[in-house]
Design a protein that fits this description.
Structural class of chain B: alpha/beta
CATH topology of the domain at 1-75 and 195-263 in chain B: Rossmann fold
Order of helices and strands of chain A: HHHEEHHHHHHHHH
CATH topology of the largest domain in chain A: MetI-like fold
Radius of gyration of chain B: 19 Å
Number of strands of chain A: 2
Number of helices of chain B: 8
Largest interface: A-B, 20 and 23 residues
Strand order of the largest sheet of chain B: 6-7-8-3-9-10
Strand content of chain B: 15-25%
Structural class of chain A: mainly alpha
Order of helices and strands of chain B: EEEHEEEHHHEHEHEEHH
CATH architecture of the domain at 1-75 and 195-263 in chain B: 3-Layer(aba) Sandwich
CATH architecture of the largest domain in chain A: Orthogonal Bundle
Strand order of the largest sheet of chain A: 1-2
Distance between the termini of chain B: 41 Å
CATH superfamily of the domain at 1-75 and 195-263 in chain B: P-loop containing nucleotide triphosphate hydrolases
Strand content of chain A: under 5%
Largest sheet of chain A: 2 strands, antiparallel
CATH class of the largest domain in chain A: Mainly Alpha
Number of strands of chain B: 10
Distance between the termini of chain A: 26 Å
Helix content of chain A: over 70%
Radius of gyration of chain A: 26 Å
Oligomer: heterodimer
Shape of chain B: globular
Number of domains of chain A: 3
Shape of chain A: globular
């Protein structure tokens, strides 16, 4: 049991907790405490020093929106955002309750009455916006992977195709999401016309922009991974007379999985960075729009709320990276490889 | 008598920016069924190229290879190859590595249970049953090569090709594997072509030693028939005058008549 927990923590990268688990199970307390001090104490100290510098530094800068908020004010804004979320949810529940009662009364008077069920149209809360951002980046990243992995595999297998695609990849790779966005917006407006769209245009635009920017690391890493397969492994496949598809699925993909995941991890990181910029301009109701709206709003609490968003973006980005790291470790056949 | 495997006037050119480079020139060799043939020569003499042509991985520029009356043009499981660096799939266990080969060759010919027995039988043959569920990374070099041999044997090849199979192993492990190979050979009586640069290994294992001249345009210098009785014992042979005679023949060929000018 204990070993299993430790193994899980190591796989997921939460090595901080390993000494805690060992401590809880009574494994030489003194050494575990030393380990803990080293692994948790040092990062914790760094965070405390950072907060201190922030607190002192922020007080010295005065903007047109007032003083730059320090950690305390940012924390206050975070609690306010959480409160707002619960208030909004309570309002929503009340709205639905009222509607149900009203409809029930109507039906009581006249069983044939046509009743209307309306959806609640209150504003999104901070948590809704976080979920929107996560969903958008996931969709964009998913489409990008769906395109990049197969193309990467095929171009890794064929030198001709690789030399054909390489200049295109190199040209498109460094393009900023802000440059793509106007084009994507116009194309989406022109092509994606529907009376009752399944997804909002802003969402589609943001997701496609994420796709365009997060395509390249996966594509390049997959192609490199595939083209650097041990020749002898391919020769084994030739001796066994495996056909093209079997070779791809049994030999090529498994042996390039570590490189593919390295690419996916970089792609997701880029996608998350790109998303915030895309949401700001496309007005997709996620964290990017939140930041932009607060900036336009310009109240005394705006800077604090933006900083909450900035920290949220950072922490979520870190968590996404951890998830990818865990998957990378899980799928890598070389369990001894050091992956950070 | 019609020979089992006939390497017939094989030459091969590799294209280089300065025109074709002739690696092998007019190599002819006839091998009987059940014969164990070693090809020995200095590194770079093209001995691996001979094997790759028989294996079908390379195409001869001139001449060809005929196995049981049919020309060899592409790789196939009838000419299983044991690579120097084991070439096991690192993401599969020892068992699964053999399984991949067996499943792709005997699909539709053997039932699932028969295949399982056949895989286990071949793993047992190389004495690896205890570690069949381990990944290659968890096995020692010698163990990996044993699984590589098991995988090749499981293909039921007409000719077993071995490219310096023990070259990457330490001397003791190598001796161990050589003994295992002789034991298996006594059982199965396979036709084997083995590339080696180890004189003792060649004399101990082979019925016939093919000595190659240095490249470019390498060809067969001499063929030595090793008619030592089997089963052969490493210890007894080390004092056997006949064994030492064969040994010195090969050494004289390699280091006197065809010594490499530049190491």
């Amino acid at each position: 049991m204990k070993d299993k927990i430790i193994q899980f923590l190591e796989l997921t990268g939460f090595t901080w907790f390993v000494p805690l688990v060992k401590l809880a199970t009574g494994d030489s307390p003194k050494r575990q405490l030393q380990e803990l001090a080293k692994m948790v104490g040092i990062p914790l100290l760094a965070i405390v020093i950072f907060l201190g510098l922030w607190h002192v530094g922020a007080a010295k800068v005065v903007t047109s929106l007032g003083q730059v908020p320090g950690p305390v004010q940012v924390y206050e804004q975070a609690t306010i955002l959480v409160d707002e979320h619960y208030q909004e949810r309570a309002k929503e529940a009340q709205f639905h309750e009222r509607q149900e009662i009203r409809n029930a009364k109507k039906l009581e008077k006249n069983p044939d009455a046509v009743i209307k069920v309306r959806a609640y149209t209150g504003k999104e809360t901070y948590f809704d916006q976080i979920l929107t951002s996560l969903w958008t980046v996931f969709v964009g990243f998913f489409i990008a992977s769906l395109i990049a992995i197969p193309i990467g595999i095929i171009s890794g297998l064929s030198n001709t195709l690789y030399s054909a695609l390489n200049p295109l990849i190199q040209i498109f790779k460094p393009i900023s999401p802000l440059a793509w966005l106007p084009i994507v917006t116009m194309v989406v407006s022109a092509v994606y016309v529907s009376k009752d769209p399944l997804f909002a245009k802003a969402f589609v635009t943001s997701a496609i922009t994420v796709t365009l920017c997060s395509l390249w690391p996966t594509l390049i890493n997959t192609a490199v991974g595939v083209s650097s397969i041990d020749r002898d492994l391919i020769n084994v496949g030739r001796v066994l007379r495996l056909n093209y598809l079997t070779t791809v699925f049994k030999i090529v993909i498994p042996s390039s999985i570590p490189m593919i995941f390295t690419g996916l991890r970089i792609s997701l990181g880029i996608g998350w960075m790109v998303l915030i910029a895309a949401e700001m301009l496309a007005q997709n109701p996620g964290l990017g729009k939140f930041v932009w709206d607060e900036f336009q709003n310009g109240s005394s609490s705006s800077l604090g709320r933006i900083m909450v968003a900035v920290l949220t973006i950072g922490i979520l980005g870190f968590m996404l990276d951890r998830i990818m790291l865990t998957m990378q470790k899980f799928f890598s056949y070389d369990k001894n490889a050091v992956i950070r | 008598m019609e020979k089992y495997l006939n390497i017939d006037h094989v030459s091969i050119d590799f294209p280089t920016p300065n025109g074709p480079f002739r690696a092998l020139d007019d190599v002819s060799l006839k091998i009987n069924k059940g014969e164990f043939v070693s090809i020995i020569g200095h590194s770079g003499c093209g001995k691996s190229t001979v094997m790759n042509i028989v294996g079908g991985l390379y195409q001869a520029t001139q001449g060809g290879v005929i196995l049981e009356g049919k020309e060899v043009n592409e790789p196939g499981p009838d000419r299983a190859i044991v690579f120097q660096n084991h070439s096991l799939f690192p993401w599969l266990t020892a068992y699964e590595n053999v399984e991949l080969a067996v499943k792709s060759i005997f699909k539709g010919k053997k039932s699932a249970a028969e295949m399982k027995d056949w895989i286990n039988h071949n793993i047992e043959l190389v004495h690896m049953s205890h570690a069949k569920d381990k990944l290659p990374a968890e096995l020692s070099g010698g163990m990996k090569q044993r699984i590589g041999i098991a995988r090749a044997l499981a293909m039921e090849p007409k000719v077993l090709l071995m490219d310096e199979p023990f070259g990457a192993l330490d001397a003791l492990t190598r001796a161990h594997l050589q003994d295992s190979l002789m034991e298996i050979q006594a059982d199965l009586n396979n036709t084997v072509i083995m590339i080696t640069h180890d004189v003792d290994e060649a004399v101990l294992l082979s019925d016939k030693i093919v000595m190659m001249t240095n490249g470019p345009a390498a060809t067969i210098g001499e063929v030595l028939e090793v008619d030592l009785p089997r089963p052969r014992q490493r210890l007894e042979l080390s004092d056997d005058p006949k064994y030492n005679h064969f040994r010195s023949e090969v050494i004289h060929f390699l280091h006197e008549r065809h010594a490499r000018k530049v190491a």
